[in-house]
Amino acid sequence: MASSLQLESIVNWAIQAFIVTGVAVIGLRAIGSNPGGRKESDEAHHSIPWEDKLRLIRKYGTWAVNRAEAFCPENDVACVEREARRLIEVYRARREI
Q: How many CB atoms sit inside 10 A of residue 59's CB?
């Protein structure tokens, strides 16, 4: 059976390894690097197909489509179109007042 001194040294080593790993992750995120060499901006996230997004951008504008895309569930083009239309109508109505 392991003595309490051995258990204490094992626990201390595990805690130190955990802290060093955490500091390394924080440092990598601070300088904008990922361990895999891939940056998060390399793969832009689009919840709807790009062709549909371009069509909606031409119709409602970038601002409204991006806002609607953030609000709607993934791959729900109809929801993005409805929300973009609503946003642009509200924007135009408030500018007229």
A: 13
